Amino acid sequence: MTTDPLPESVELHEELAAYLDGELDAQAVKRVEERLGRDPAYQAELQRLERAWDLLDRLPRATVNEAFTKTTIEMVAVAASEDAAAVQSAWPRRQRRQQLLGGLGVMAAGLLGFVVGHWLWPSPNEQLLRDLSVLENFELYYQADNIDFLRLLDEQGLFAEGESDHAG
Which residues contact 165 (CB under 8 A, 6 or more apart)? Predict the structure, then answer.
């Protein structure tokens, strides 16, 4: 059964590795050296890392010839050109999709603007349509001598909706 190293253990290894590599600033070096002086477990971990690094130094170094370098560079160049071709072929589709979404967005904004405009500013012709029967018979109403006569006719239902033309 293997267990994951504790985060504290990972930080300890990173700190000691940086100490061995000489990557720490003066304050961090002082802090590590103080801990090494008082913590035997910390000392043991440093010694264990030093032994591992010594063993790694004894391993033979791999040599790479020019052919390996050339083939590696060629593989990278081929992969880069394939990636560039894939991006370039995807560009028209992406551009069409963006244009389509942009057009739909403009249409939706226009429709929303129309609905909001119609809601905020009702048509002035609606009042004219409601008063159409009055306008159609305006000449007859104009001949009445006073408004009381017209009110009397309205009370009798003469101006009720749905009746035919009263002009005769």
Answer: 136, 137
Does one domain contain both 135 and 107? no
Distances (CA, A) of 123 to 41, 109, 113, 118: 87, 21, 15, 7
Query: DSSP state, 143?
Result: T
Same domain, residue pair 111 and 128: no
For the stretch 139-149, pLDDT in tens is 777 777 778 87
Say if CB 116 and CB 107 are below 8 A apart. Answer: no
For residue 113, what are the domain limits? 86-121
In a domain, 2, yes or no: no
Amino acid at 92: P
Block residue for tokens 């159409």: 132
In this predicted model, what pLDDT tens digit does every residue of 14-62 receive, in sequence order? 888 888 888 889 998 999 889 889 988 888 888 998 898 888 888 887 7
Measured between alpha carbons, how far is 129 from 134 in angstroms, rounded to an integer?
Answer: 10
Please give the backbone phi and psi of residue 27, each rounded to the nearest 5 degrees, phi first.
Answer: -65, -40
